[in-house]
């Protein structure tokens, strides 16, 4: 099974000469008041490769309604944020919570560095920040939410509490080895005692890479989607050739660190030109998902350059994951 690509892909491309001139990719999404809000990573130039977040609004037919002329969220140097990247947004109760990657040492992708002759830089570990909004316009920073020594990139919050506690999935890239139960970066579950500058605890390994298409690492995509048969998780897998694909799994509703079903094969892989050719070739990177009238819209970055969309009936995808469960 493969998702149906939107015929109007890519839905957002770089434009202008300033903050989003060379890259607009890896969008997160939320559906509110009949509109799809996308918050996407925007890059101004290859030399510095500093990322900010742009904001665009689409209707439920994926027609572009509005695209902001200025960034909606950027790095705060007072907090040692040199770049903010790859956001995920979740609505909990009546507020919107956005996780984002904080990169102290932003750098262009390897292929770009080689092409332009930019020297390789020493990279610091990345951490995850959290911001809250009441209106999808103004965001208040709440602090770092991942462990100090964890090299994090992919962190998403569940849209409701688990066992009365805030919970999420994260991917600490350096939690590997015998003491962690995985030799490759995997997906972890955790509780948070509060959202922002709180304690993260109860870490459990949910999934590790198993198939060839995910033989380098895996990481969570959009916030898990609650269905009657479990939490639907869309995730990305990377193989040894650094090809990025999307997979799907179902997690237990009450104990989400338990995997109910997981597909053996990816549900989306680079095939279209805008996924195969770009600043990082052969990448589909899902970060956003909304459900409208039973249809699942998945938003993803194509080749680290553009924003794209794909769709599938939600129940059809859930059935597929269960019927093609690799553990059955």
Give an overview in words:
This protein has 328 residues and is mainly beta. It has one domain (14-323): Tachylectin-2, Chain A. The chain has 3 helices and 21 strands. The strands form 5 sheets. Strands 14, 15, 16, 17 and 18 form a 5-stranded antiparallel sheet that branches. It has a 4-stranded antiparallel sheet with strand order 1-21-20-19. A 4-stranded antiparallel sheet has the order 2-3-4-5, with no helix packed on it. The relative contact order is 0.15. The mean pLDDT is 96.
Structural key phrases:
328 residues, mainly beta, 44% strand, globular, single chain, 4-stranded antiparallel sheet, 6% helix, Tachylectin-2, Chain A
Number of helices: 3
How far do the termini sit from each other?
Answer: 18 Å
The tally of beta strands, per DSSP, is: 21
Task: Tell me, briefly, the overall form.
Answer: globular
Number of domains: 1
- Give the full name of the CATH homologous superfamily: Glycosyl hydrolase domain, family 43
Rg over C-alpha atoms, rounded to the nearest angstrom: 18 Å
Overall mean confidence score, pLDDT: 96
Give the topology string: H per helix, E per strand.
EEEEEEEHEEEEEEEEEEEHEEEH
Summarize this, please?
The chain has three helices and 21 strands. The protein has 328 residues and is mainly β. The protein has one domain (14-323): Tachylectin-2, Chain A, CATH 2.115.10.20.
Give the secondary structure arrangement, pairings included.
Blueprint: E1 4-5, E2 23-32, E3 35-43, E4 51-58, E5 64-67, E6 84-92, E7 95-102, H1 110-116, E8 127-133, E9 139-144, E10 152-157, E11 166-172, E12 187-192, E13 200-207, E14 217-220, E15 225-227, E16 230-238, E17 244-251, E18 259-262, H2 273-276, E19 284-292, E20 295-302, E21 306-313, H3 314-323
Antiparallel strand pairs: 1-21, 2-3, 3-4, 4-5, 6-7, 7-8, 8-9, 10-11, 11-12, 12-13, 14-16, 15-16, 16-17, 17-18, 19-20, 20-21
